[in-house]
What does this fold into?
Amino acid sequence: MIHCHKCKTQNRADAQKCSQCGKDLLPGSGFGERASGFGCMIVLAALSIPIMYFCSQSAIAVGEGTGFSTALLILGPIFALMFLLFGLILAFRKVPMYERYQKRAERHILLDPQQALVDFTQAIANLPNKTSAIRLKLLKQRAELYTQQEMHNDAQTDYRQALTLADELYNTQPQKEKLQYLEERVNLLEKLGRQDEADLEGLNYTYLAEKALPEKKIAMGVREGIEQANTDSKRNDIHTKRKAILDRGRFKALGYCRKCKTAVELDHTLRCKVNAMHDKVKSIRFVRVEEMDRVKQEISASR
Ligand SMILES: [Zn+2]
Ligand SMILES: [Zn+2]
It folds into this structure.
C-alpha cells in the first residue's frame, strides 16, 4: 500500500498517482527533488574552486613541480563548470519511470519490504534494455529483499537471472569492464550455493585482477608513494581472497617453475611452493585436487 501524503488515501502498491487527489506518488520528478539536486550541485561547484586552490598550494608546499600545481589550479573552474552542468541536467531531465520506481523501492526497503518488492518489480518491468548493468543491480536488490522475507525460491530465480545477465555483460563489454562482471559472477554463484564453480571462477578472477594492477616500481615522490601503497593494498586483498579459496582445499594453483624446471604447486601469491624465492613461474593453471597429477604432467610436457 502506498500512502498519499496530501490526502492520506491508501493507494495500490504499484500506483503512480493518488486515486483520490491525483498527486504524483513516485519520487524523482517533483519541484522539491529537482531544486535540492540543483542546490547540492551549486554548492559543490562553489566549493571546488577554493578546494582545488588549496590542493595546488599544498602541492607546492610538499615540493611538487609547478606544472602539477598549476594543473590542480586549472581543475578548480573545470570541476565547477561540470557540477553546474550536472546540476542543470538534474533539474531539467525527464526521470525515467524505472528510476522513479527504483527510488520508491529503496525508500521502502526497511519501512515496508512488501511495498519495496512491488516497486522493484515495476522498476524491472519498466527497464528499456534487456541487458544492462542496471537490470543486474535491480535483480540483486530484489533477490536480497526476497531472501530477507524468507522467499528463497523467488530469490534464487532472481539470482539465476542475474547470473545469466552477468555472463552476457561479461561477453559483450570491453576488456577493462570485464573484470567487474567476473567478480559479479563469483558472488552470484556463491548466492546460488554453487561453491565449487564460485571458487574456480574466484581463482580466475584473482589472476586477472592481479594482472591488471600496475607493475611494481620503486617509489619516488609523494604521489608515486601513495599510488604504490594503493596498489600494494589491492594486491594484498587479492592474495587474501586467493588464500581463502586455496585453504578450502578443493582447488590447487599449479605452474611451471623455471628454477625447479618442473611443474609445481603454487602458494597464494603464485610463487613456487618448493621455495618461496622461486618467483619465475609460467603456465599458471587452477585445477581441482583430483586433476592435479594429470595437469602437472601436461604442464611439464608442454615445456
Ligand atoms: Zn491523494
Ligand atoms: Zn621452484
About this structure: The longest strand covers residues 281-288. The first helix runs from residue 31 to 61.
